[in-house]
Amino acid sequence: MNTIFSHLFYLRKSKTKTDSGIIYFRITVNGKRAVTTTGREVPVSLWNPASGKATGNSAQAKAVNRFLSKVENDIYNAHQRLVDKGDFFSSKDIIDIYLGKDKKKEDEEKILLEIFQEHNDRVNRLVGKDFAKGTAERYRTAKKHVEEYIKKEYKTSDIPVMDVNHKFITGFEYYLKTERNCAHNSAIKYITNFKKIIRIAFTNEWISRDPFQNWKAKLKVVDREFLTEGELQVLISKEIKNERLSLVKDIFTFNCFTGLCYADVKKLSEKDVVVGFDGKRWIKTNRTKTKSSIPILHTAEAILEKYSAHPEVSEKHLIPILSNQKMNAYIKEIADICGINKNLTFHLARHTFATTVTLSNGVPIESVSKMLGHKNLQTTQHYAKILDRKISDDMAILRERLVAKNF
């Protein structure tokens, strides 16, 4: 935003003292003026109207000019602050910042849940571009938890963001784990979502300190379940006559051999399947933050062929998938039918692809990471740790057998 900005110091003579006056300064922005006093008194004999400064080398003159230099610097800082915001401003706005009037106004206006809602609104508008739907949903849930915590603990609907301190944060964590019955990792993730809101306030100078500075928390490593090779064989070979459950079993199996998450399977279209440099068909999808490239294995290819004539399959939808809630409910039925004593979920198929199908069969972890669309290798390395645990368990069995054989 282009503005024409200037300032001027001048002396207003005292009505009671003919030999002194008060220094005022005038701000002009795009031709419109605003005036206020510096509150500094100076003898008329020391004032130079042409330069807008005290004249001479006396100690008093030097002190006045040092003061004016500081005022001038504060004025320039106030002007630059308004320019950086990019909004329309007037000469009075500059004076208000200099006098500190804007600070009180901002502190009154910057309310915690209002900032949270503004952030969530921006995230919602960027869903599909910079954020996934799940991310937007987590921020909405985090805001709801903060809102309910404020009502319970502070007996009010909202609080100024400057009232958030270390006690608020630790209290919120305790509330999530006790009142909301959140597991440790879930509680930490909600607090991390909340932390972003506080960082926004801190960056915008709505608060003078970061209350998260001394808050430390780590996510606990959770073992991710997956199907073993034997369980996967049972699943594939099990014949299920119920059409609904048979469909769900096939889609789950398809995911065990592609590693796609539910959202990627649901939007999988004909344009996502391409012929690669090797002459084989590949699935290439653009995830929210990354891209994934997955060669289609024989089992997955057979399932695509099986449902190619399904009435719900088209160029835009290659898989006749149900809602995530129904898929997870039916997968549990399938686990009972197959005698698999694990809490099967749709996402467990992705873990199975990473471990049993790929890493266990010698596929390098870098390739697995690329296929899963992980942003960094560290995320994929967790699956390697799971396999290390499996190797340890297998070796424990071997040790027992060797001991029995006196080896």
TrEMBL record:
GO terms classed as biological process: DNA integration; DNA recombination
InterPro entries reported in the protein's UniProt record: Arm-DNA-bind_5, DNA_brk_join_enz, Integrase-like_cat_sf, Integrase_catalytic, Integrase_recombinase_N, SAM-like_dom, Tyrosine_recombinase_XerCD
Entry keyword set: DNA recombination, DNA-binding
Protein's UniProt keywords contain Acetylation: no
Span of domain Tyr recombinase: 222-397
GO terms, molecular function: DNA binding
Pfam families (UniProt xref): Arm-DNA-bind_5 (PF17293), Phage_int_SAM_5 (PF13102), Phage_integrase (PF00589)
Domain of life: Bacteria
Family in the record: Belongs to the 'phage' integrase family.
Protein's name in the database: Recombinase
Species of origin: Salegentibacter salinarum
